[in-house]
Design a protein that fits this description.
With about 475 residues, the protein is mostly helical. About 65% of the residues lie in helices and about 5% in strands. It contains 20 helices and five strands. It has helices at about 5-20, 35-50, 75-85, 90-115, 120-130, 135-140, 145-165, 170-185, 190-205, 210-235, 240-250, 260-275, 275-290, 295-315, 325-340, 345-360, 370-380, 395-400, 420-430, 450-460; strands at about 390, 405-410, 435, 460, 470. The chain has a five-stranded mixed beta sheet. Helix 4 runs antiparallel to helix 5, helix 7 runs parallel beside helix 9 and helix 15 runs antiparallel to helix 16. The radius of gyration is 24 Å and the shape is globular. The relative contact order is 0.11.
Length: about 475
C-alpha cells in the first residue's frame, strides 16, 4: 500500500471503532444477550476476587464458589480480569477487550481481501464487515465471539500465506491461531474445508506428502482436545460439553429442515445481516464464482456450518462466523459496481442502505432492561456480598450483575436437587441460602402463585420498592 492508502485505512478503522463506543460503559443489562454477557463478565470478576488461575473459571450460580464449569478457553475473560486487577471494575474495560479483538480481525480481513481480490474490494469488504448488524452489536458485547473471529480469520490469512510462500513461520502462527479459535468456539473448525481446497489448488495431491501439514492437523486437533478434556475433568458443571453432546451431535443432520430452524433462518438472518445485505449476498455469489474459488468455498463451508450447527443451537450470535465470507461477497460486488463509472453511485447508495438498515436493526438491541437494573440495585442494597441467594428465575443475570452467588429456583435440570419446589427451597436453606429473590414479584414456573403465597406466609419480606420483594430465609 502507498502512503495515501494507509492513511485511508487508518481512517476507516477509526470510523469502525467509533461505531462501537456507544454504550461502552453500560453493564450487561441490554435486552440482547444479557445472560451471555453477564456470565462472561462475572467470570472475569471471579478471577480477580476468588481464583486467578486462567483454567479455573467460576460462575455465580449453582451454588457457592468454587463453581467451575467446563467451558471454552477464557482468553477474553482473563484479559478483562487483568484490566480489572490493574484499573478496577469498569464496564468499558470489559467491552474494550472484544472491541480490540474485532478491530484486529478487521485488519486481517482487509489484508486477506486486498491480497486475493484487490484494494478496492478490501475497502468495501472492510466497511461491510464493520456495519453489518451482527458485527455492530456483538463486536462490543462482553462475549468471546470477537476473540474467536480474530484467531479464526488470522489463522486462515497465515495458512493461505504459507501455501503461497511455504514459509514455515506462517504455518506455525496459523496453527496457534486456529487452535485458540477452536478452543474459543469449536464450530470454527469447519474452516478446514477451504484450507483443504487451498492445499489442492496450490499443490494438487502432493500436499498429502507434506509432513508439516500432518503435524499442523495433528496439533489443531490434539491441543483443543487436551484442553477440553482437562476442562471437563475439573468441572462441576459441563455446559460446553453438554451443548455439544445433547444438541449439536444429536440434531446436526436433522435440525436444519425443522420448522424451528426455518423460523430461525427467516427471522435471524435478515436481522443479523440486514435484508439488503442478505439480498446482496445472493448477488455476490454470482460475482465471485469466476473471480476467486477459495472465497466461494469458504462461503459454502459456512453455509454448511449454519445448517449443521447453528440450526441446532439457534442462537443468532452464532451467525457471526457466517458473516465473514458474506462481508467479502458483498464487498466484492460493491467494488465491481464501483469500477464502472455509472456504478459508483449505485455502490455508495447500497452501502448507505446497509448502514441505515443496520442502525435501525441494532438500535433496539441497546435498550436497557430497567427492571433488571432496579432488581440489581435492590439486591446490592439489601444483601451482603457473601450472602447466598435463591433467585426465582431461569436467567442468572441477577446473580452475576449484583456480584452475588446462589441458585436459580425451580429450573429442574439437576438430578441432585429435589424437584418438588418446597423440598428444593429446604435444600437451598440447608446449603446456606439466606434470601429468596423473586423477579419483580414472580417466581419461575409458579404460574398459579402457590409458591409465592407460601413465601409470603412463612418468611419475612423486605420490599424497598413496591413489587420488588426479597424474602429472608433465616
Amino acid at each position: 500500500m502507498n502512503k495515501q492508502e494507509k492513511y485511508f485505512l487508518v481512517l476507516l478503522i477509526g470510523i469502525i471503532l467509533l461505531m462501537r463506543l456507544y454504550h461502552v460503559d453500560v453493564a450487561p443489562v441490554e435486552i440482547e444477550e444479557s445472560w451471555r454477557q453477564a456470565d462472561t463478565e462475572s467470570i472475569a470478576r471471579n478471577y480477580v476476587g476468588y481464583d486467578f488461575n486462567p483454567f479455573h473459571p467460576n460462575f455465580n450460580y449453582d451454588g457457592p464458589l468454587p463453581n467451575i464449569p467446563a467451558l471454552e478457553i477464557q482468553v477474553t475473560t482473563y484479559l478483562i480480569a487483568i484490566l480489572y486487577k490493574v484499573f478496577g471494575y469498569h464496564y468499558f474495560l470489559a467491552r474494550m477487550v472484544p472491541i480490540a479483538f474485532f478491530m484486529i480481525s478487521a485488519i486481517y480481513l482487509f489484508g486477506y481481501v486486498r491480497k486475493h481480490l484487490g484494494y478496492r474490494e478490501a475497502v468495501f469488504s472492510l466497511l461491510v464487515y464493520g456495519i453489518l448488524p451482527i458485527n455492530l452489536f456483538y463486536s462490543r458485547a462482553i462475549m468471546p465471539e470477537s476473540a474467536a473471529l480474530m484467531f479464526w480469520i488470522g489463522s486462515f490469512y497465515y495458512f493461505h500465506g504459507w501455501a503461497e510462500e511455504r514459509k514455515i513461520s506462517r504455518l506455525i502462527i496459523s496453527c496457534i491461531f486456529l487452535s485458540l479459535a477452536i478452543m474459543t468456539k469449536p464450530p470454527v473448525i469447519i474452516i478446514g474445508i477451504p484450507m483443504l481446497f487451498i492445499c489442492y489448488k496450490y499443490f494438487g495431491w502432493r500436499w498429502l506428502k507434506f509432513a508439516e501439514l500432518w503435524i499442523y492437523a495433528l496439533l489443531i486437533i490434539t491441543l483443543p482436545f487436551l484442553y477440553y478434556y482437562y476442562s471437563g475433568s475439573i468441572a462441576e458443571y459441563k455446559f460446553a460439553i453438554g451443548i455439544t453432546n445433547n444438541i449439536i451431535l444429536k440434531e446436526a443432520f436433522s435440525a436444519f429442515y425443522s420448522p424451528e430452524a426455518y423460523l430461525f433462518y427467516t427471522n435471524s438472518i435478515p436481522k443479523m445481516l440486514s435484508m439488503s445485505g442478505t439480498i446482496l449476498i445472493i448477488a455476490g455469489i454470482w460475482a465471485i464464482v469466476r473471480k476467486n474459488k477459495v472465497i466461494l468455498i469458504w462461503f459454502m463451508a459456512m453455509v454448511l456450518e449454519v445448517f449443521l450447527i447453528v440450526s441446532a443451537i439457534r442462537a443468532p450470535y452464532y451467525l457471526i462466523f457466517f458473516a465473514v465470507p458474506c462481508s467479502i461477497l458483498i464487498g466484492n460486488l460493491l467494488a465491481n459496481f464501483f469500477s464502472n463509472p455509472q456504478g459508483k453511485v449505485i455502490s455508495v447508495v447500497l452501502l448507505l442502505v446497509i448502514s441505515l438498515e443496520s442502525f435501525y436493526l441494532v438500535k433496539p438491541m441497546y435498550t436497557r432492561n430497567t427492571t433488571l437494573e432496579n432488581q440489581v440495585a435492590i439486591v446490592q442494597q439489601v444483601t451482603k456480598k457473601d450472602d447466598l441467594l435463591v433467585v426465582g428465575s431461569l436467567d442468572p443475570c441477577l446473580l452475576s450483575l449484583s456480584d452475588r452467588r446462589g441458585w436459580r429456583f425451580n429450573i429442574g435440570i439437576y438430578s441432585h436437587i429435589p424437584q418438588d419446589p418446597f423440598e428444593e427451597l429446604d435444600f437451598y436453606i440447608e446449603k446456606g441460602a439466606k434470601y429468596f429473590v423473586p423477579i419483580q414479584g414472580k417466581v419461575y414456573g409458579d404460574e398459579d402463585g402457590l409458591f409465592l403465597r407460601y413465601l409470603e406466609s412463612e418468611y419475612e419480606k423486605i420490599e424497598p420498592i413496591q413489587d420488588f420483594p426479597i424474602y429472608v430465609l433465616e
